[in-house]
UniProtKB/TrEMBL annotation:
It comes from Desmophyllum pertusum. This is Carbonic anhydrase. Its EC number is 4.2.1.1. Reversible hydration of carbon dioxide. GO terms for cellular component: cytoplasm. GO terms for molecular function: carbonate dehydratase activity; zinc ion binding. Its cofactor is Zn(2+). The keyword Isomerase does not apply. It catalyses: hydrogencarbonate + H(+) = CO2 + H2O.
């Protein structure tokens, strides 16, 4: 089968052919985060702020893999995540983005049906588990919380100086399969809001094949601002078939019996 993607021929509606869990899974991601009514997110006063320890990365690869652009530091990186709903420490693996070809679509998670123009995912794996000792092993582990992904919505506004080193690099990885070694240091901490207190959290999956149901999702309420020019830079990245990636987001999946917790009222 042709590698998966987001076109009519290989997009989310076809992924079940190689990944049956796409249709049979009961904890698939993304979801629509509903804030009022029956199945809405429930405030949980026990939810603490998320704690990140992200020393500036000094060595990383920035890659266009044909379905997103991802920033992956070298194996030695010491960046860690804890707190929030987590009981363990997680190691940073990579970050990547999902976006649309206009400002009314692009995020994977939605809030009361509203999509943002893009969504940033920071991917981590549980580094304290006795059952695996790498990201790839974590994905294949069947552990319900092997991974933790932090999701941040992007909205159009002022230019984001902290993300500029990334958005300025997009033209260098325009072609699918291309990658560059990230020049200099990158301070991911500076991209994030200062306090990581207000978020939704639920048990879900990877939103791309293999769609493994091993992710503790933490999606932050406050969007991060980027400029129109920065959004346009994402929309110029190619998918390997000579076309721009025009919407690398999976539609929302059924909640089934899951509940969503909110760390804020
Ligand atoms: N969009 S997602 O859920 O983070 N999906 C991922 N798939 C494999 C690599 C890490 N992330
Ligand atoms: Zn993602």
């Amino acid at each position: 089968m042709a590698p998966w993607g987001y076109s009519k021929e290989n997009g989310p509606a076809t992924w079940h052919k190689d990944c049956p869990i796409a249709n049979t899974g009961v904890r698939q991601s993304p979801i629509d985060l509903i804030t009022t009514g029956q199945t809405c997110a429930k405030y949980d006063s026990n939810l603490k702020p998320v704690i990140v320890s992200y020393p500036a990365f000094s060595e990383a690869t920035f890659l266009n893999n044909g379905h997103s652009v991802q920033f992956q530091p070298s194996a030695g990186n010491l960046s860690e995540l804890s707190g929030g709903p987590l009981t363990k420490k997680y190691k940073f693996e990579q970050f990547h983005f999902h976006w649309g070809n206009n400002d009314s679509e692009g995020s994977e998670h939605r809030v009361n049906g509203k999509m943002y123009p893009a969504e940033l995912h920071l991917v981590h794996w549980n580094s304290e588990s006795p059952n695996f000792s790498s990201f790839q092993e974590a994905v294949g582990s069947n552990d319900p919380h092997a991974l933790c992904v932090l999701g941040f919505f992007l909205k159009v506004g002022a230019e984001n100086a902290s993300l500029k080193p990334i958005t300025d690099l997009l033209s260098k990885v325009k072609n699918a399969g291309s990658s560059v070694s990230f020049p200099g240091k990158f301070d991911l901490k500076a991209v994030l809001p200062e306090t990581l207190t207000d978020y939704y959290t639920y048990d879900g999956s990877l939103t791309t094949p293999p769609l493994a149901e091993c992710v503790k999702w933490i999606v932050f309420k406050e969007p991060i601002e980027v400029s129109t020019a920065q959004m346009e830079a994402f929309r110029a990245v190619d998918d390997g078939h000579g076309k721009p990636i025009t919407g690398n987001y999976r539609p929302p999946c059924p909640l089934h019996t899951r509940t969503v917790a909110a760390s804020f009222k």
